[in-house]
Specification:
heterotrimer; A alpha/beta; B mainly alpha; C alpha+beta; A: alpha/beta; Dimethylsulfoxide Reductase, domain 2; about 15% strand; B: mainly alpha; Formate dehydrogenase/DMSO reductase fold; about 65% helix
C-alpha cells in the first residue's frame, strides 16, 4: 500500500505572511478603512463586478464597516447565491494594492514612477493631450480598450470626442471566434451570459470548458442541477478537470484536435441517420452539400488525430443523439485556441444544429431583455475614416472590433496612426498575446491613460493612471441584458471609497467637461441619469435602490413554447453549408488542419480558470488570495517522476522563442493531465511593482504567449500555440 | 483503494503540513516534570522507609538538596508550560474548575500539589540559611513531622504525587487518539520510569554517600533496562496495530526520526549509560558523570522525539 | 433533543471554495486560517480517473475529544443542537484540543484562543443556514437535525449511500458525504 503523502494545495510560504492586510487581518482592514460611526446592520443591494456575470448581491454593513456579500434571492442570475469571487468581493474594498490617487508618469514609460496629482490636474492634462492629438491626427487616433459595463460612460465621452476605435479584448482574445462561428450558422452569437439551457439538458458536452473551475455562476448552478438529475455528461479535455470528474464519458483529446472530433461526431450522426431530420428539414439550408463535405471525417480517420478510439467516438455521438434535442454541446467561452477557432466554433454550432438543440429546451433558449430606454444624447460626430482594426475588411466576418487590429495599427501607423489609448478595466499586458508587441505599440503613443482599481501591469506603462472606486463604492450603468427572463439591475454605493478614488461615470463626465463636450452630459448627477432611464421603464431609482433588481414578465424562450424560429443568415435558415464563407474564400463547412507540433521534448502550454479568481484582477484581493495565493503547473505524474520533479518543486518555463518566465512556479505532479501538455491558471505571475502583495507569485502564462495564430475569418488570436520546457529552480 | 493524490486547501498554520502546535516548551516540560516526579518518588520512598538525615545512611536524602532541586526543576518546567500557552492572561482559568475527563486538568492540579510536598521535603532538612531566617517555621515543621508515622505518611504522599506527576503526561498524550504514535497505555509508565531513571542517575551523582551511590546506580540500571523493555513493547504494540499505527511506528523505524531515536534516545540515552553504570557498579571502571549526563540527555531526547514525531503521525485518509 | 449535522452531496460539489470564502467573510476568520476547507482525492491512472471532492470542517462529533481534553471547560457542547463551541474567555491556549482533533479542524486565533467552525450558531439561532450551506452555488450542502427522521438531512441519509470522514477515529462525526 502506498504511503499516503498529504500534500497541500497551497503552501502558505513566508511570503504569504506579507499578504496580510495592514494591521491584523481583514477584519481590521475593513473596519479601519472608515471609522465605524453608524451602529447596527445595514443592507444594500447592488450587483457584482468580480466578473462579467454581474450577479445581484446584498451587501451587509455592520457598525459602519463592510461585512459580507450574499446573493440577492430575487436575482435570476445568482438565484441568491454568489460565486466565490462574488462572496470574496469585500476584499476589493480592502485591497492593500488599490490605486489611491491620480498618478502622472514621473520618468520613463514602464518604470512605474509616479507623481500623485489632483483629479483636476490629471484630467486637465489628459484633455490637453487629447486636443493636441485631435488637432494633429484627428480624433480617430484615440482608441479605447474597455472591458465590462463600467466602460459605458468613457465610451460615451470618447465617442463624443470623435473616437471610433473602441474594442474589448473579450472579442479577439476570448469569445469572439465562438460568436462568429454561431453567427455564421444561426445568424446570432451565443450571447453573454450564454443562452445555454444547461439545467434542462439531458446530455451536456463540454469541449475544453471546465465548468466548476470556470465559475460563470448560473452555468455552474445549472451544471450541478444537471449532474444531480443524472444528465449524461461528456467532457473533452486534455486535462481531467472537475467537470471531467462528473462525466459519463471523459475523452482525453490531443490538444489542438478538437475540430477533428467534432467533425467525426457529425459524420456519425449523419451516416447513422441519428440527427434531428425534422428540425433540419424545417430549418436547415444546404444539408446535402454539408453531408458531402463531412464524408471524409470518419471516426477511423479521427482516431490517430485525436487519440480517441473510433468506438468511443461512435458511442458518444450516439449518446448525444439519444437525448436530443435536450443535448447541449456547450459553445465554451474562451475559444481563442489554435487560429481556426471560428470554424471550430461553427462546427460546434453545426453539431448542435444536427441535434436540434438551437431554440429548444435543454439546448439554447431565446433570451429576452427588459426595455429600458437609453438616455437621449446628441448624435456623435460622424467620421469618414473608418476603423483601423480590420482595414479593407481584412477579417471579413469580425462582428466586433479587434484589439489586436488596433494594436497593429498603433505599431505600423497604417491605415492611419493611433496616438492615444484609453484603457478601462482590462490588463492588456496579461490579456493580449505577445507582450512585446503591446509594449512596442505603447511606445508609439503620445498618450496612454489607464483607468483601473489596482495597479495592474498595463497601469505600470501608463502616462496617466486614474484610480477608480470599486463597484462597492459607486453607482454605475444599469444592467439590462439578455437572459432567460428580462430584468433591470442597479449598482449603487455600499461604502465610501477610502481614498481619492472616483467612479467611472464621474471621470467620464469631468473629462467631457474639460473637452468642452458638456452638452453630451445633460444630466448633472448619476442619480438623475439613472432615474430618468428607469422612469422610462415605469420604474424609479428609489425602487431600484431598495430592491436592487426588478424582473419583467417571463416570455416564452423555446420554439416549443411559441418562439418563432428566425435566423439572421443570408438564407434565413440555419446555414449548414455557408455560401458566404465560400464566397469569401473560406471553407463552407469546417475542415480540419492538423495543428503544428511543438519542438521535441516541449509541452504545449494550456491555461484556464480557477473558481476563486477572475483573470489577473483578483490576486491582490486579500480574501481571495487566501483561497489561492499562486498558481501551480499541472504536469503529468509519470513525466514528473521521469524528470525528477515532485510536487512543490519550483521551475521556470522557457518557451519556443526563448522567453523564460520571470518568476518560478511550483510543479503539481498529477495524474489528471496528458503527458504532452502542461496547464496553469491564468492571471498570476504578476510583475507589476504596484502589486507587491501579488508580485512574483506563480508564473504568467501571458508572458509566454509570444506566438499566436490569427484567425483569418474574424481576426481572433489563437493563443494555445506555445510550447514550453521546464527549468529547475536553484 | 487509497487515493493517488490528496490535495487540500488551507486549514491553518499549526496543522500544515502536519500538526506542530507543540514545540520545545512541551518537550522540556515533559523532561523536567518527569525528573521532578522521579525526585518525589525517590525522596518519598526514603521517607517512607524511615531514613533520616543528617549523619546516618539514607536513601536519596543523603543529598538533602534534592527537594530544593525539585522545586527548581518543576518551576522551570511550569515556566516552559506557561510559555507555550497562546492565551496567557487567562491561565488562571485552570484553577477555577476541575474537568474530570481532561488529563491536563488533572495535571494542573497535580502540579499545584507538587509544591507543598517539595516544600515539606525542604523543611525536613532545611539548609542553614533557611534555618537562620525562619527558625520558627523550621522548628514547628520539624516538630510536626518528627515522628515516624508522620514522616511515613508524608513519604506516601510524596510517592503518590510523584507517580501522578510522572504518569499523567503519558495519559494525556495517549488520550489524544488523533495522533496514532501516542496511542499506547505504555506512555504513562514509560514517562514515569524515564523520570525515575533521570532523577536516580542525577541523584547518584549528587549523593555524598558511597553506598547510596551504588544503590542508586543499581536502581538506575534496573530502570534503564525496564525503560528499554517498555520502548520495545511500545514499538511492538504500534507495529502490530492498525495501518495508522504502523505508519506512526515507521517514523522511528526508517522514517525521519529514526536516527535521533536509535542513536540519541536508545543508544546514547539508554544502552550506553546502562553499560557504563553496570561496569561502574562492578568496579570495572571509574564512576564518572558521563553516564548521568547521557541519561539526562537521553531522557530529554526521548521527550523531543515523542512530541515531534507524535505530532507528525496522523490517521490516513481515503 | 436536536442533533445538528450536515449532509453534503459530493456528486454536485465542484470544489469551488465558495463555502470557504463565505465562512471567511461571515465569521471574519484570521488571515491564513480557515474553519472549512476542500479536499480533492484522485484515484486511478490517467485517463481512468475518479475524483472525490469534499468540503470539510469541524464535524461537531457526538463524542468530541476536543471537549474531553480541555482543562478549563472552554471547549464545550452547546446546550442545544449538540454543537461544539469554544468559550474564548475560558481558553488558555494550551492547544490540547488542536492536537486532539483527528480532522485538524481547529486553529489558534491571533488573539490567543482556540477557534473553529461553530455551525454558524449565530445564524442557526435566527433560523438561517450556516454561511457555507447558504452560499453553495451547487446547492450540494444540507444542514439540519439528524435526530428528526423527517428532516431533509435524515431523508437524504436514508436514501443515498454516504460516508463520514475517518469514522475509525471513533469520535462520531456528524457530517456525511453522499456518494
Amino acid at each position: 500500500m502506498t504511503d499516503l503523502s498529504r500534500r497541500r494545495f497551497l503552501q502558505v510560504t513566508a511570503a504569504g505572511a506579507g499578504v496580510a492586510a495592514a494591521a491584523g487581518g481583514l477584519g481590521a482592514a475593513l473596519g479601519a478603512v472608515r471609522p465605524a460611526r453608524a451602529r447596527g446592520l445595514r443592507t444594500v443591494p447592488t450587483f457584482c463586478d468580480s466578473c462579467f456575470w454581474k450577479c445581484n448581491a446584498i451587501a451587509s454593513v455592520a457598525d459602519g464597516a463592510l461585512w459580507k456579500l450574499e446573493g440577492n434571492p430575487e436575482d435570476p442570475l445568482s438565484r441568491g447565491r454568489l460565486c466565490p469571487r462574488g462572496t470574496g468581493g469585500v476584499g476589493a474594498h480592502a485591497d492593500p494594492d488599490r490605486l489611491r490617487a491620480p498618478l502622472l508618469r514621473a520618468n520613463v514609460r514602464g518604470e512605474a514612477r509616479w507623481t500623485a496629482v489632483t483629479w483636476d490636474e490629471a484630467l486637465g492634462h489628459i484633455a490637453d493631450k487629447l486636443q493636441t492629438i485631435k488637432a494633429r491626427y484627428g480624433p480617430e487616433a484615440v482608441a479605447l480598450f474597455s472591458h465590462g459595463l463600467g466602460g459605458t460612460f468613457l465610451k460615451h465621452t470618447l465617442k463624443a470626442y470623435g473616437a471610433v476605435n473602441v474594442a474589448a479584448p473579450s472579442f479577439a482574445q476570448c469569445r469572439g471566434p465562438r460568436d462568429v462561428g454561431f453567427e455564421l450558422t444561426f445568424g446570432e452569437g451565443v450571447g453573454s451570459p450564454e443562452r445555454t439551457d444547461i439545467a434542462n439538458a439531458r446530455c451536456l458536452v463540454l469541449i475544453g470548458s471546465h465548468l466548476g473551475e470556470n465559475m460563470h455562476n448560473t452555468q455552474v448552478q445549472e451544471f450541478a442541477e444537471a449532474v444531480g438529475a443524472g444528465a449524461s455528461i461528456i467532457v473533452v479535455d486534455p486535462r481531467f478537470s472537475i467537470a471531467a470528474s462528473k462525466a459519463k464519458h471523459y475523452l482525453p483529446v490531443r490538444p489542438g484536435t478538437d475540430l477533428a472530433l467534432v467533425l467525426a461526431w457529425m459524420n456519425v450522426l449523419v451516416t447513422e441517420g441519428l440527427y434531428d431530420r425534422e428540425y433540419i428539414a424545417q430549418h436547415g439550408f444546404g444539408f446535402d452539400a454539408f453531408a458531402a463535405e463531412l464524408a471524409p471525417w470518419t471516426p477511423e480517420w479521427a482516431f490517430p488525430e485525436t487519440g480517441i478510439e473510433p468506438e468511443v467516438i461512435r458511442e458518444t455521438a450516439r449518446e448525444m443523439a439519444r437525448h436530443r434535442p435536450a443535448t447541449l454541446v456547450h459553445p465554451g467561452r474562451r475559444a481563442s485556441w489554435y487560429g481556426d477557432d471560428a470554424q471550430r466554433s461553427r462546427a460546434i454550432a453545426l453539431l448542435n444544429a444536427l441535434l436540434g438543440s438551437w431554440g429548444r429546451k435543454g439546448g439554447f433558449y431565446q433570451p429576452a431583455s427588459m426595455t429600458v430606454p437609453a438616455y437621449p444624447y446628441p448624435p456623435y460626430p460622424v467620421s469618414t475614416r473608418g476603423k483601423v482594426d480590420s482595414p479593407g475588411k481584412k477579417y471579413p466576418f469580425a462582428s466586433e472590433p479587434l484589439t489586436t487590429g488596433i494594436r497593429d495599427a498603433t505599431i505600423t501607423g497604417k491605415p492611419y496612426p493611433i496616438k492615444g489609448w484609453f484603457v478601462y478595466a482590462t490588463n492588456l499586458i496579461q490579456a493580449m498575446p505577445n507582450q512585446a508587441e503591446t509594449i512596442a505599440a505603447i511606445q508609439n503613443l503620445d498618450l496612454l491613460v489607464v483607468v483601473d482599481v489596482i495597479g495592474s501591469e498595463i497601469a505600470g506603462w501608463a502616462d496617466v493612471v486614474l484610480p477608480e472606486a470599486t463597484y462597492l463604492e459607486r453607482y454605475d450603468e444599469l444592467n439590462v441584458e439578455l437572459f432567460r427572463e428580462p430584468f433591470v439591475a442597479l449598482r449603487q454605493p455600499v461604502v465610501e471609497p477610502p481614498d481619492d478614488q472616483q467612479p467611472n461615470w464621474w471621470i467620464a463626465r469631468k473629462l467631457a467637461v474639460k473637452l468642452g463636450l458638456e452638452r453630451y452630459y445633460p444630466w448633472k448627477t448619476i442619480e438623475e441619469y439613472l432615474d430618468h432611464r428607469l422612469r422610462g421603464a415605469g420604474l424609479s431609482l428609489d425602487e431600484l435602490k431598495q430592491k436592487g433588481v426588478v424582473r419583467g414578465p417571463r416570455p416564452p424562450i423555446y420554439f416549443e413554447d411559441g418562439v418563432t424560429p428566425s435566423f439572421a443568415t443570408p438564407s434565413r435558415k440555419i446555414e449548414l453549408y455557408s455560401v458566404q464563407l465560400k464566397d469569401a474564400g473560406f471553407d463552407p463547412v469546417p475542415s480540419y488542419t492538423r495543428p503544428e507540433p511543438g519542438p521535441p521534448g516541449a509541452f504545449r502550454l494550456l491555461f484556464g480558470r480557477a473558481p476563486v479568481h477572475s483573470f489577473s484582477r483578483t490576486q491582490t484581493n486579500p480574501v481571495l488570495s487566501q483561497a489561492m495565493a499562486e498558481n501551480e503547473l499541472w504536469l503529468n505524474a509519470a513525466v514528473a517522476t521521469r524528470m525528477g520533479l515532485p510536487s512543490g518543486k519550483r521551475v521556470r518555463l522557457r518557451n519556443q522563442d526563448g522567453v523564460v518566465s520571470e518568476f518560478s512556479i511550483a510543479v503539481r505532479a498529477t495524474e489528471a493531465i496528458r503527458p504532452d501538455c502542461v496547464y496553469l491558471v491564468h492571471g498570476f505571475g504578476h510583475s507589476s511593482k504596484m502589486l507587491p502583495s501579488a508580485r512574483g507569485r506563480g508564473a504568467s502564462d501571458a508572458q509566454l504567449v509570444t506566438r499566436y495564430k490569427t484567425d483569418p475569418v474574424m481576426g481572433g488570436s489563437g493563443m494555445n500555440v506555445n510550447f514550453v520546457t521546464l527549468e529547475q529552480e536553484g | 483503494m487509497s487515493p493517488r493524490e490528496l490535495v487540500s486547501t488551507v486549514h491553518g498554520p499549526l496543522t500544515e503540513p502536519a500538526l506542530h502546535a507543540w514545540g520545545w516548551e512541551i518537550a522540556v516540560y515533559l523532561f523536567l516534570g518527569g525528573f521532578t516526579a522521579g525526585l518525589l518518588v525517590l525522596c518519598g520512598t526514603a521517607l517512607w522507609r524511615g531514613r533520616r538525615n543528617p549523619g546516618g545512611p539514607s536513601f536519596a536524602l543523603a543529598s538533602s538538596g534534592l527537594p530544593a532541586l525539585g522545586l527548581v526543576t518543576i518551576s522551570l518546567g511550569m515556566l516552559a508550560l506557561f510559555l507555550d500557552l497562546a492565551h496567557k492572561p487567562f491561565v488562571w482559568r485552570l484553577y477555577v474548575t476541575f474537568q474530570l475527563r481532561s488529563p491536563m486538568s488533572w495535571g494542573a492540579w497535580i502540579l499545584l500539589m507538587v509544591y507543598p510536598v517539595l516544600l515539606a521535603g525542604v523543611l525536613l532538612d532545611p539548609p542553614r540559611w533557611l534555618r537562620d531566617r525562619l527558625p520558627g517555621l523550621v522548628r514547628g515543621f520539624g516538630a510536626r513531622f518528627d515522628g515516624d508515622v508522620a514522616r511515613r505518611r508524608l513519604g506516601v504522599v510524596a510517592i503518590a504525587t510523584g507517580v501522578a506527576l510522572g504518569v499523567y503526561t503519558g495519559v494525556l498524550l495517549s488520550s489524544l487518539g488523533a495522533r496514532p504514535l501516542w496511542s499506547s497505555a505504555l506512555l504513562g509508565p514509560l514517562f514515569l520510569v524515564s523520570g525515575l531513571s533521570t532523577s536516580a542517575s542525577a541523584a547518584h551523582w549528587l549523593s555524598p554517600d558511597h553506598d547510596e551511590r551504588t544503590r542508586l546506580l543499581r536502581l538506575d540500571n534496573l530502570l534503564l533496562a525496564v525503560e528499554l523493555g517498555l520502548l520495545g513493547l511500545f514499538l511492538i504494540n504500534l507495529s502490530s496495530s492498525t495501518q495508522a499505527h504502523v505508519a506512526a511506528a515507521r517514523l522511528v523505524l526508517g522514517g525521519p526520526y529514526t536516527a535521533v531515536f536509535w542513536v540519541g534516545v536508545v543508544g546514547l540515552g539508554l544502552v550506553a549509560p546502562l553499560v557504563l553504570q553496570t561496569l561502574a557498579v562492578a568496579r570495572r571502571i571509574a564512576d564518572t558523570p558521563l553516564a548521568p549526563i547521557l541519561v539526562l540527555l537521553g531522557g530529554l531526547a526521548l521527550r523531543f522525539v515523542l512530541v515531534f514525531a507524535g505530532q507528525a503521525s496522523h490517521w490516513s485518509r481515503l | 433533543m436536536a442533533r445538528l449535522g450536515m449532509v453534503i452531496d459530493t456528486r454536485r460539489c465542484v470544489g469551488c471554495q465558495d463555502c470557504v470564502v463565505a465562512c471567511k467573510t461571515e465569521n471574519r476568520t484570521p488571515h491564513g486560517m480557515n474553519r472549512d476547507w476542500i479536499t480533492y482525492a484522485y484515484q486511478g491512472t490517467f485517463p481512468a480517473l475518479s475524483l472525490t471532492i469534499q468540503s470539510e470542517r469541524c464535524n461537531h462529533c457526538d463524542d468530541p475529544p476536543c471537549v474531553s481534553c480541555c482543562p478549563t471547560g472552554a471547549s464545550h457542547v452547546h446546550d442545544w443542537g449538540g454543537v461544539v463551541l469554544i468559550d474564548h474567555d475560558a481558553c488558555i491556549g494550551c492547544k490540547a484540543c488542536v492536537a486532539s482533533c483527528p480532522y485538524d479542524a481547529r486553529y489558534i486565533h491571533p488573539d490567543g484562543y482556540a477557534d473553529k467552525c461553530t455551525f454558524c450558531i449565530h445564524r442557526v439561532e435566527q433560523s438561517k443556514d450556516p454561511a457555507c450551506v447558504a452560499v453553495c452555488p451547487t446547492r450540494c450542502m444540507h444542514f439540519g437535525d439528524l435526530d428528526d427522521p423527517e428532516s431533509e438531512v435524515s431523508r437524504l441519509l436514508a436514501s443515498r449511500r454516504h460516508h463520514a470522514i475517518l469514522p475509525e477515529a471513533g469520535t462520531g462525526p456528524r457530517i456525511f458525504y453522499l456518494e
